[in-house]
Amino acid sequence: MAPEHEERYAEHAYVHANFEGFRIDLVPCYLVEDASKIISAVDRTPFHCRYVSAEIRGLEDEVLLIKQFMKGIGVYGSELKVGGFSGYLAELLVIRYGSFISVLEGASSWRPGETMDLSGHSSRNHPDPLVVVDPVDPGRNVAAALTLDRMLQFVAAARLFLEDPGLDFFFPPEIFPLTDEELREEMARRDSAFILLEFGGPDLVEDVIFPQLRKAEESVRALFVRSGFSVLRSDADWHRGITFEPPGSDGVGESGIFGTIRILFELEVATLPKVERRVGPPVWEAAHAKKFVESHPEPLCGPYIREGRVVVEVPRRFALASPGGHPRPGAPPGPRAGPWLQDIQGGGDPRDRRPGVSGLHGQVLFGATEGGLTPFRTASTPSSQSSSSRGQEPSSPHLSSLLPSGPDTSPSPA
Hints:
By secondary structure, this protein is an alpha+beta fold. The chain contains nine helices and 14 strands. The strands form four sheets. A five-stranded antiparallel β-sheet has the order 8-9-7-13-14, with helices on both faces. Strands 1-2-3 form a three-stranded antiparallel β-sheet, with no helix packed on it.
């Protein structure tokens, strides 16, 4: 037995182990006579093995090539964290096309909706970007976990390799983290605004965490966009090996917390004008125009007419995306601490309130200030600072006051 092992849970219990440098999952399955009578998803595996063993003879090296190619370009792995190609899908592609090069040639012309049915026995439609009908279970799409971006990443890499083959596709150069100084220089060059949310992770498997984590990322992103902030990029990850240390913990992680969950947003700017323009209905729609005007009783300007519509200018609800905003040169720096997310929910537009991670702690870890990103390691409250030190009037709240406390990590029923 492997000395390093643990019991994990997904659809049912399984054992994850580290053995002689390899990570191994021991997943039990039910013994069934037909793939159409499976009890759990993993019950298909023996049928997959028998099918591939019978069809793959003579193509084993081609399979190794395509799998290493997929690993090298970052699209291998059907777990929800990756959203890429499973090993079984890679094997079916080699069986379908006949060789590594033929797979790349075929993939170079794929478009969303590409469908393959090796056994020609499925009439079911699937909404996924790539559909590969399971030869042993006609109702299942083997490529269901593959995202559109990972599929097209493979398409682009296939075209590039066919034009100019190289070992870097299989074994890309190692990427080293930036030093603190390099990070500051890159941030100054981009002159954008970064906001990093950090949470303690629960003791759950990645395939439970990541769907909810992506939903939380999209929810917060939508909140930024809806409030007028332009989001350049965002991403999320779960670092199981990094202890989450909330402010005031003196470097001691909390019990029941497993690793650190992080969601990063890059915004074009983190501070918007205090006024926003709201465009109403056409003037000829009398009832709607009247209702629009009545709903804005104290505009900063208007109502007036532009291109046939009623327009008002009103105070912007959120001028700051983070506690410190993103002041221009010469402006006073913003606060250097982010509030605890679970303490700043409630109030405001119901659309801005999203389900959070039950029982998890989170904080705005980074905010854009005069000196770039400032890591928030101690808790403080923006209201404890004067309006001049924040560069904003007390009545102008920051958008992070409505951020959810994270993804809902409650396991879905099996």
